[in-house]
């Protein structure tokens, strides 16, 4: 069905458009929710500036699959990465090993992308020649192919500048000194904003694979013509000044995700949140019935996995907090389960008058609702910046990848959240964290700072703000390459 839609789109573009003289951009997203969403937002922004957009579909990872009919302004090109002519490769089949998944995905995509770009280059009557390849940094295979075909390339970094700096330390094999090793709470000498315990962590069965992936991502970023960042200068000004010491190419911190969300109204076919699971929009009417700033929204994102015991501790901590809550318990949150059947016996009955459990929620709408006063989050970067965008203070419970770095920035640099110990989760710790944020004076002060940071983001994203200025500069840059 998806292929048929793509074919029909191609015929329609051939019929109605002559884009020979247009700037044609090929975007290569990573087929994971947290990566796909900012790339699609970037595609929307660039298309609004007059660029023709082709999006490469490298895997049907999303379930339900990405529906091209929702984005009629783009052309979609599916590349077959398997010997049987399919493009199916499931992250779930790698048991949560994101590094091994990325290695296999990149190894499979090189030749198919080369063939696809060569076809696009030759079919100039329909598409126009490819002006530039814009790819997610983790899809590093794109760099070699673009260079081989002598097509300029630009990288999109979907994570924070802080994470880039932390990974740079990790990459160069920086060893902790004895003091840092013995006291992981101390700031790192090479990056004082974070501690040893805040460094990125990747659960992988193949350490060499992880090292190769990180090295290729780093090389692709540092050798690109330019780097677009899913962040804002007002959030990471100091960090970007340090990044500029490591990357000679121009940096464009436009934060396409927030830039687009704040500048456009979403129609029913433009909700990027529905990429992975079916959203439960009924939770919005439930939120309407709650008092302002009273609800704790709980979500650990699209790929984090927790244990059955952690699920139970989360449940009873929420129950004991006596605060209204909206909790996302997605399928696969506990490995091999739809999550809901593992909730403790009696939990739903006890909390039914003040709690709601759903399998997926329209997060950007939830965080913007007047009743939501706190966000218990895993601190994926998208979730973090969405919370900042709405002025919602956070309870930070990082788990994998860059989440520890993000949580540290939230709690100690921006000071708009509190830290929940990552390991050995206990219900009394959950109850204490929720009470501190939602009831105590400390929570009120955190909320005040969150509102101030929200205003800084608004200014940055508004007309004449740094995000708009960087977007204008990016458009001019692409037209010149």
UniProtKB/TrEMBL annotation:
InterPro entries: UDP_glucos_trans. It comes from the Eukaryota. Gene3D superfamilies: Glycogen Phosphorylase B (3.40.50.2000). Pfam families: UDPGT. Keywords: Transferase. One of its GO terms (molecular function) is quercetin 3-O-glucosyltransferase activity. SUPFAM superfamilies: UDP-Glycosyltransferase/glycogen phosphorylase (SSF53756). Belongs to the UDP-glycosyltransferase family. This is UDP-glucuronosyl/UDP-glucosyltransferase. It comes from Parasponia andersonii (Sponia andersonii). The lineage of its organism: Eukaryota, Viridiplantae, Streptophyta, Embryophyta, Tracheophyta.
């Amino acid at each position: 069905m998806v292929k048929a839609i793509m074919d029909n789109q191609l015929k329609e573009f051939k019929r109605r458009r002559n884009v020979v003289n247009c700037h044609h951009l090929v975007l290569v997203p990573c087929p994971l929710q947290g990566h796909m969403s900012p790339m699609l937002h970037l595609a929307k922004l660039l298309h609004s500036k007059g660029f023709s957009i082709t999006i490469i579909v490298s895997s049907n990872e999303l379930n339900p699959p990405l529906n091209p009919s929702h984005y009629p302004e783009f052309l979609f090109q599916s590349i077959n990465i398997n010997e049987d002519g399919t493009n199916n490769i499931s992250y779930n089949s790698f048991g949560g090993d994101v590094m091994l998944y990325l290695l296999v995905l990149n190894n499979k995509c090189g030749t198919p992308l080369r063939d696809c770009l060569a076809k696009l280059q030759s079919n100039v009557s329909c598409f126009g020649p490819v002006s530039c390849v814009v790819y997610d940094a983790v899809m590093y295979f794109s760099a070699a192919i673009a260079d081989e075909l002598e097509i300029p390339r630009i990288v999109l970094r979907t994570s924070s500048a802080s994470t880039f700096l932390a990974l740079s330390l990790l990459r160069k094999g920086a060893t902790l000194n004895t003091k840092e090793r013995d006291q992981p709470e101390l700031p790192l000498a090479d990056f004082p904003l974070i501690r040893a315990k805040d460094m990125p962590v990747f659960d992988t069965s193949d350490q060499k694979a992880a090292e190769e992936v990180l090295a290729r991502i780093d090389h692709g970023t540092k050798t690109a013509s330019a780097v677009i960042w899913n962040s804002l200068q007002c959030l990471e000004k100091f960090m970007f000044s340090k990044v500029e010491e490591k990357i000679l190419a121009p940096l464009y911190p436009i934060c396409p995700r927030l830039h687009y969300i704040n500048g456009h109204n979403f129609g029913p076919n433009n909700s990027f949140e529905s990429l992975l699971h079916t959203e439960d929009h009924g939770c919005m009417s439930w939120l309407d019935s709650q008092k302002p700033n009273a609800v704790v929204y709980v979500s650990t994102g699209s790929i984090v996995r927790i244990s059955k015991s952690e699920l139970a501790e989360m449940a009873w901590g929420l129950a004991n907090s006596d605060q209204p809550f909206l909790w996302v318990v997605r399928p696969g949150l506990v490995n091999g389960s739809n999550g809901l059947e593992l909730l403790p016996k009696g939990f739903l009955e006890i909390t039914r008058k003040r709690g709601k459990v759903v399998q997926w929620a329209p997060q950007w709408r939830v965080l913007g609702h007047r009743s939501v006063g706190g966000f218990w989050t895993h601190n994926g970067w998208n979730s973090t910046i969405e919370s900042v965008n709405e002025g919602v203070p956070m309870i930070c419970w990082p788990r994998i990848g860059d989440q520890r770095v993000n949580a540290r920035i939230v709690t100690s640099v921006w000071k708009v959240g509190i830290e929940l110990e990552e390991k050995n989760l206990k219900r009394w710790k959950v109850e204490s964290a929720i009470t501190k944020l939602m009831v105590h004076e400390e929570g009120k002060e955190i909320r005040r700072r969150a509102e101030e940071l929200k205003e800084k983001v608004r200014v940055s994203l508004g007309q004449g703000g740094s995000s708009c200025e960087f977007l204008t500069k990016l458009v001019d840059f692409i037209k010149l390459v």
